User: Fold Thymidylate kinase from Maledivibacter halophilus.
Amino acid sequence: MSGVFITFEGPDGSGKTTQIKLLEEYFKKKGYDILITREPGGTDISEQIRKIILDRKNTQMDRITEALLYSASRAQHVAQVIKPALLEGKVIICDRFVDSSIVYQGIGRGLGIDFIKKINDMATDGTEPDITFLMKISPEKGLSRKFSSDECNRLDMERLEFHNKVYEGYLKLEKLYPKRIIGIDAAKSIEKVHEIIIKKVIDKQF
Assistant:
């Protein structure tokens, strides 16, 4: 049996972490073998790259450097964790994947979708999510939640204009890939959002 690859996308502060935990509990109750992971990160090497990318002191990081570091982290993550887990038939739930690079670096940083896709095609070796839940919330509201948690990273500190571009990018991807990307109104209650996600999962017959 091949595994299932589920990703969560959206602005920081949109509730991804909470919904990933609830979905993990759902699958565990159903008896599935679950792997929870994140990007950038997921392996020792990838987590080291994550620290460099998100360190608030690295304000001089070039946009191409940033994009390539994300891709490098992802290549290690896919090779070491995601592909082996899929071959073992596990359900993988990942906080962010290629869509994040497309909207943050491709659109937000202005590097272009084609460039980001090219470097990530190599990094993922053809690995794509079966379903992506896009947690939709205004950048202003998401950032206000993030700032109140005192966990802001280098990207969080970008101007609101940047985050608005990123969010608009997510909405474009939702229209481009309607079979894979499922938009969820993250402003709804935690319980309601979870209910919607479970229904979509059941519809996919995982």
